[in-house]
Amino acid sequence: MADSKKIDDLAFRFSKLREKCIRSGESIENIRWEFLRNVYRVPTTQAKASESSFFTWNKIIWFLILPAITLFLGQSVLEYDADAKCLIEPDDVFLNELARKPTNCSLLCEGVNEIQRVSNLSKKEFISTYAYTGRPVVITDAAQNWSAVNAFSFKFFKRLYAKSDEADLENTDEGCLFFPYKSGFQSLAQALRMPKKRAEWKGKPWYIGWSNCDPTARQVLRKYYNKPYFIPHDAETGDQDWIFMGGPGPGAPIHIDMVQRPSWQAQLSGQKMWTLIPPPECEHICRTVQVTMQKGEIIVLDTNQWFHSTKIIPTGELSITIGAEYD
């Protein structure tokens, strides 16, 4: 009986916490980020002397109690509010964020006070300084001569996928993903059917992303861009194109990716501001940095290690980017 009362009390406390967060207007993404910061971060007093041991045990303890928290949030709380949702949804992405491998802070971000903007980047310098260290860099002249800069638009993608099998566009299997963010769309097919008014940014705001899984579309897309010149000849860029498109306002919320390799992303239209946040275990030696991508520029970073968010800058045109992984 005593244990039952304790569970009920804890569930009630979580329910009140959820209500407080909702009233405050705090986004679920920010709540998740703060939760992860508390899992990973290294206290200043222990940063040098016991970083390794603290990180290990802090993470293990949280990982062990997460199922209990999930139970209380996902089940017990519902006894108080049948329509309530979990404060933190225990989805695969969140569990991956929680269980990721710790970062080598010195290599990734120590001393990075701003994102370097370079041009005429040699393959040798790219490999030695940026390619596999995780340190972000913007190459300002990397995509300026691509025909994609002037060709890609909402209408371009609508025409590109017009003959695609709708079942393929509705596909959300692993490796073939659609990111609706807060657009309200459930699939790429649905997004490409949006009314003309909304497509021209005269209706409800939208921002979407997807990985192209249509081999015919891939052949067409790669007529408009080349492998970035700074990537060595013997390095492969991924077969899968990642495309992100939308108008002024929030883009992607704070997150890290779970892809196989580092990646690059080219800004082909509009402007997009990136906010890169070091992993929580690196906060004692690294800092958050921002950069605004201009048309024709490419950003290279390891999105598996940098937490990142994006915001579309009002310029009178949609922000359109395309990117891929490299080895």
Automatic annotation (TrEMBL):
Pfam families (alphabetical):
Cupin_8
Which SUPFAM superfamilies does the UniProt entry name for this protein? Clavaminate synthase-like
Write out the GO biological process terms: methylation
- Positions the record marks as coiled coil are none
Record's superkingdom?
Answer: Eukaryota
Output the Gene Ontology terms for molecular function.
2-oxoglutarate-dependent dioxygenase activity; methyltransferase activity
Q: What keywords are assigned to this protein?
A: Methyltransferase, Transferase
* PANTHER family linked: ARGININE DEMETHYLASE AND LYSYL-HYDROXYLASE JMJD (PTHR12480), CUPIN-LIKE DOMAIN-CONTAINING PROTEIN (PTHR12480:SF19)
The entry's protein name is Bifunctional arginine demethylase and lysyl-hydroxylase JMJD6
Gene name per UniProt: JMJD6
